[in-house]
Structures are given as structure tokens and as C-alpha cells.
Amino acid sequence: MARFLFAATPATGHVTPALPLVRALRDAGHEVRFTTGREFERQVTRAGAAFTPVPWWPDVTAGDRPVVVVSQGTIATDPAELLRPALTGLAPADDLLVVAVTGGADPAVLGPLPANARAAAFVPFAELFPYASVVVTNGGYGTIQLALAHGLPMVVAGRTEDKPETTARVAWSGVGVDLRTQRPAADRVHSGVRRVLTDPAFAARARALRDEMDDGSTPERRAVALIEAVVRPAAG
């Protein structure tokens, strides 16, 4: 038996399509848990999944203050490196809502949360990023690409794996601030977020890259174009 976690924005178009797969996994003997808005608890439990509410999702969608997403991805997940410094540094910022994603760890590892913070082990970025204003990340390739796909500027702090390369490119391309460390001080995270939020050039550049990435073609077509660009000069 395996354990599965589904997570979806609390909207019919997001929850309902997943329920047939939930039932199939349950019928195959697997343990299934589904996290979404409480208004979908009945449908989820009928499908055979344990229900886990996201009570703070309306805080994200309210739109009354900028949302700062803080993530360490799923590999370098020591919360002392980025999550805790970010929560501490941004705690006095009542004008911001901070959403910390632990990459699968129990959010309790973060300790008591500041009043302006919310935390979860996992939140689908495709659902969360449309409400975000800035992403604070340790520079994981996937998170950076998703942030750019949503036109979001970043504050990055990472020095393991490929992160020296990815974080340098964030700064070089003008889409964010590189703190150039694995363990930033809390005040540096705060100042980095403020800089990105107050200087519109970062968001403008992130949106420009988003538009460049979203040129209407499919990934397959882009791959063919890249391959042909290499092959044609060689053939000539």
C-alpha cells in the first residue's frame, strides 16, 4: 500500500476532476488524503479520501495584501537555512502575507508562526502563484521556472547542487535579488523582499520573461526549433 496526497484549490473545476482517481486509488488499497477547502469535505470523503482542510486559503485569495511565498523545494530542506530566517525577518511586516511551504515536512518544524504567516507541507504552486507577488526560494530549478512562468520576481538564497548557477542567473536576468548565501540573515531576507516589491523593474522583467516563455508554442515545438537551429549550420 502506498500513501497519496492530493492538493487542490477549493474550486469545483479543480477538485471534482481529481475524485475519480481518488476513488481508483482507494479501491486499489492505497491510503489517500486530500487537502482543499472545507466546503468540499463531503465530496472528498465520499470518494474515500481522508480530508485535510486548508483553513487559511481565503487569506491568500482575499487580495488585501501582497503574498510572499517561501519555499526550500524538496532536496535541501533544512528549515534553518531559509524558511525560519524568512519567517523571522518578515514577521514585523503586517502588510504582507507569508506562505511557507516545507517541501513535505510537518509544518510544526517551523515552530510557532508569526501572525502574518501561514504554512503547509505542500501547496500546488500552479494554484498558489497566481496570487503571489514575490517568491523567496533557495534557487531550485523547478521553483524558478514556475515563478518565471507566472511572471513573479524572486529573492534567492542557495549554494548547494546547481543553485549557484540558477541564483546567479536570477540576478543577471534582472528578475530578482541573489542573497549569495545558503543561510541568509533574517534582516537580509526582509530587505531583499522589500527591494523586489518596491522596485517595479524586477516584476517588469519577470513578466517579460514570462511572455517570452509563453509564445504560444508547445515544449515539443520549441525543442524541434532548438534542434534545427543546431543542425542547420552543421548541414550547411
TrEMBL record:
InterPro entries xrefs: EryCIII-like_C (IPR010610), Glycosyltransferase_28 (IPR050426), GlycoTrans_28_N (IPR004276)
Start and end residues of each Erythromycin biosynthesis protein CIII-like C-terminal domain: 90-224
Name used for this protein in its record: UDP:flavonoid glycosyltransferase YjiC (YdhE family)
SUPFAM superfamilies: UDP-Glycosyltransferase/glycogen phosphorylase
PANTHER family: STEROL 3-BETA-GLUCOSYLTRANSFERASE, STEROL 3-BETA-GLUCOSYLTRANSFERASE UGT80A2
Domain of life: Bacteria
Species, as recorded: Catenuloplanes indicus
GO BP term (any one): carbohydrate metabolic process
Residues annotated as domain Glycosyltransferase family 28 N-terminal: 12-55
GO molecular function (one): hexosyltransferase activity
Pfam family, one: Glyco_transf_28
